[in-house]
């Protein structure tokens, strides 16, 4: 029994030395992981440009009164290089309400 207890103490001390004895290795590992995650995020953003930006732009145009209908809004989005694919269902109704409100103001 004493031998297993001694081995356990030896392993605990070994693990403690490994964790505290090489902070440079830990920092390099964390840096490499951060770099890899950053590269993945960068690649995702490059392959899916402005996924939600088109809806944000649509809301801006609708609020400004720059368009009279949702169809004209979709056309303007395409002309500016945005994808109007997100504008359907509830989003379309919301944008229509914004356009109506802007026309009543103006």
List keywords for this structure.
106 residues; mainly alpha; 5 helices; 78% helix; 0% strand
What does this structure look like?
The chain has 106 residues and is an all-alpha fold. It has 5 helices and no strands. Helix 3 packs parallel to helix 5. The termini are far apart.
List the helices and strands and how they pair.
Elements: H1 2-21, H2 23-47, H3 53-64, H4 70-79, H5 90-105
Helix pairs in contact: 3-4, 3-5
- Protein structure class: mainly alpha
Roughly how many Å apart are the termini?
Answer: 88 Å
Radius of gyration: 29 Å
The amount of helix comes to: over 70%
Biggest β-sheet description: none
| Count of alpha and pi helical runs | 5
The total count of strands amounts to: 0
What is the H/E order? HHHHH
Gross geometry: rod-shaped
β-strand amount: under 5%
The overall pLDDT, averaged over residues, is: 79
Unreliable runs: none
Quick structural gist:
By secondary structure, this protein is mainly α. Helix content is about 80%, strand content about 0%.
């Amino acid at each position: 029994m004493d031998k297993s207890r001694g081995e356990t103490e030896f392993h605990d001390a070994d693990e403690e030395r490994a964790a505290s004895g090489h902070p440079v290795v830990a920092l390099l590992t964390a840096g490499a992981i951060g770099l890899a995650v950053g590269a993945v995020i960068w690649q995702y953003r490059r392959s899916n440009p402005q996924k939600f930006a088109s809806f944000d732009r649509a809301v801006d145009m609708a609020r400004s009164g720059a368009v009279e209908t949702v169809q004209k809004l979709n056309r303007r989005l395409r002309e500016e290089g945005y994808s109007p694919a997100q504008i359907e269902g509830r989003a379309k109704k919301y944008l229509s309400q914004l356009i109506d409100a802007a026309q009543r103001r103006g």
